[in-house]
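Quick one, probably user error.
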């Protein structure tokens, strides 16, 4: 007979804009029986991306809130996403290839409860084209970072990093593939640790 009542899993939303391979690794790790979190919902800002199909194939509800429908009103778009998060009783938001800058409104609303994965060893190479920039700089290694989301782009406190070597003859695509494999290991582990120590308060 178990002597302790199991803690309910932390409810996570994953925000995506594309292929969703990191999202898939988060879903799979959350579906293990004793995982401290579960992916409750996936939201994309772009319709018909592969990540939505991947999420549904894994049995997770996957929704689209197209940013184009909101014109220049970025906050209105985020309010629509936020309403879905509340509706799904989400406690932690994980950005996984969500390729839109967030407004201070959403960042403040989820302060301390929103994390992101970025394909570089931050503080090196915030923003885009990280792999090409690492190659151009002649770096010996590259990697990825999971960090808490704050208002500065790719600037929040680092929760975890993984390193990979840069090999002779590497192209940005070859390096991206090696870094992606590291991302798929790092993100579930880091999210699990974050979910375990996070205060269990709702929005
Ligand atoms: C990942 O490499 C992720 O680190 C990156 O987008 C890719 C998404 O791939 N995120 C950023 O660049 C955010 N600044 P995925 O959709 O296959 O997970």
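Nope, works fine. Designed sequence:
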């Amino acid at each position: 007979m178990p002597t302790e009542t199991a803690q309910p899993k932390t409810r996570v939303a994953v925000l995506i804009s594309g292929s969703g391979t990191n999202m898939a690794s988060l879903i799979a790790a959350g579906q293990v029986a004793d995982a401290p979190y579960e992916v409750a919902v996936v939201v994309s800002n772009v319709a018909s991306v592969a990540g939505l199909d991947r999420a549904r194939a894994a049995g997770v509800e996957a929704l689209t809130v197209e940013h184009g429908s909101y014109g220049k009103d970025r906050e209105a778009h985020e309010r629509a996403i936020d309403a879905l998060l509340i509706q799904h009783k989400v406690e932690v938001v994980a950005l996984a290839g969500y390729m839109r800058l967030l407004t201070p409104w959403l960042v403040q609303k989820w302060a301390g409860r929103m994390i992101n994965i970025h394909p570089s060893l931050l503080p090196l190479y915030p923003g885009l084209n990280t792999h090409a920039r690492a190659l151009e700089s002649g770096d010996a290694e590259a990697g990825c970072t999971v960090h808490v989301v704050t208002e500065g782009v790719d600037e929040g406190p680092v929760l975890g990093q993984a390193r990979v070597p840069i090999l002779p003859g590497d192209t940005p695509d070859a390096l991206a593939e090696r870094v992606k494999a590291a991302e798929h290991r790092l993100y579930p582990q880091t999210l699990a640790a974050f979910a375990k120590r996070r205060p269990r308060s709702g929005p």
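The chain has six helices and seven strands.
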